[in-house]
Amino acid sequence: MEVLLESRALSKTFTSGNEQEYQVLKAIDLQIRKGEFVAVMGPSGSGKSTLLYNISGMDQASGGSVKFGGMELTGMSEQELSDLRLTRMGFIFQQIHLLKNLTLLDNIILTAYMAKKQSRKGLNDRAMSLMKQSGIEGLANHDITQASGGQLQRVAICRALINQPDMIFGDEPTGALNSKSAGEIMELLADINRSGTTILLVTHDVKVAAKTDRILFMMDGSLVDENRLGKYRKELDDLRAREEKLTGWLAGLGF
Ligand SMILES: Nc1ncnc2c1ncn2[C@@H]1O[C@H](COP(=O)(O)OP(=O)(O)OP(=O)(O)O)[C@@H](O)[C@H]1O
């Protein structure tokens, strides 16, 4: 499979208040292939979110290279990065960030509509079809006060998919949900992945990671190990066995 995202010797350094430099990412070499579903795990503060921001062009690396779809991100202007994120990437976070005075459907299409590249009718139709696929088509004209946390995360997933991105980045997308909703969101993401969208997400949750193909383990700014579980097949695979395999692996890494 073709490589979609690649980093080489990616580093990120922050400068603290007293001018001390603090290296959060240390020479990260990473390859994500088209169609993969990858999770990043590791201790708090190990640099997982920073990695996600730097490989998706939300933040600028301090050194090394990041290529997405063959294009070098380091050195792109803010406008170029913003266009790339809007047209080829989708983002989902623990905090959902929806606007309260809009309907859920309008929340889904807002950013794509502001980019003025697609008609309102085309966006509405696509948003409705995504809402249907996500099991929330009945909520199109509701606002954020009329939906549960799990339903709002589905809205955020529809928003992330509105421009048919090549890749979705998720930072703890199930972190604020109860375990039932988290499981359902992961089933939805697994379906989206099966239909071709590459996904990378950061998670602390073994149950979440067990539904991905490959789990990277990050420690102190470096990727130190990975576990290839292979694609999760809902009807055939024993999810409990995948979770146990991961739990044993993580325990071996001291996590
Ligand atoms: N903008 C910033 N300025 C300064 N330091 C930062 C900044 N962003 C992150 N850091 C520091 O970088 C380190 C890694 O943070 P990061 O959020 O990437 O870790 P994480 O593995 O995602 O943690 P968690 O699991 O707790 O979310 C932390 O020590 C954090 O304080």
UniProtKB/TrEMBL annotation:
<keyword id="KW-0813">Transport</keyword>
<protein>
    <submittedName>
        <fullName>ABC transporter ATP-binding protein</fullName>
    </submittedName>
</protein>
<dbReference type="InterPro" id="IPR017911">
    <property type="entry name" value="MacB-like_ATP-bd"/>
</dbReference>
<dbReference type="GO" id="GO:0005886">
    <property type="term" value="C:plasma membrane"/>
</dbReference>
<keyword id="KW-0547">Nucleotide-binding</keyword>
<dbReference type="GO" id="GO:0098796">
    <property type="term" value="C:membrane protein complex"/>
</dbReference>
<dbReference type="InterPro" id="IPR015854">
    <property type="entry name" value="ABC_transpr_LolD-like"/>
</dbReference>
<dbReference type="InterPro" id="IPR027417">
    <property type="entry name" value="P-loop_NTPase"/>
</dbReference>
<dbReference type="GO" id="GO:0005524">
    <property type="term" value="F:ATP binding"/>
</dbReference>
<keyword id="KW-0067">ATP-binding</keyword>
<dbReference type="InterPro" id="IPR003439">
    <property type="entry name" value="ABC_transporter-like_ATP-bd"/>
</dbReference>
<dbReference type="GO" id="GO:0022857">
    <property type="term" value="F:transmembrane transporter activity"/>
</dbReference>
<dbReference type="Pfam" id="PF00005">
    <property type="entry name" value="ABC_tran"/>
</dbReference>
<feature type="domain" description="ABC transporter">
    <location>
        <begin position="5"/>
        <end position="245"/>
    </location>
</feature>
<dbReference type="InterPro" id="IPR003593">
    <property type="entry name" value="AAA+_ATPase"/>
</dbReference>
<dbReference type="GO" id="GO:0016887">
    <property type="term" value="F:ATP hydrolysis activity"/>
</dbReference>
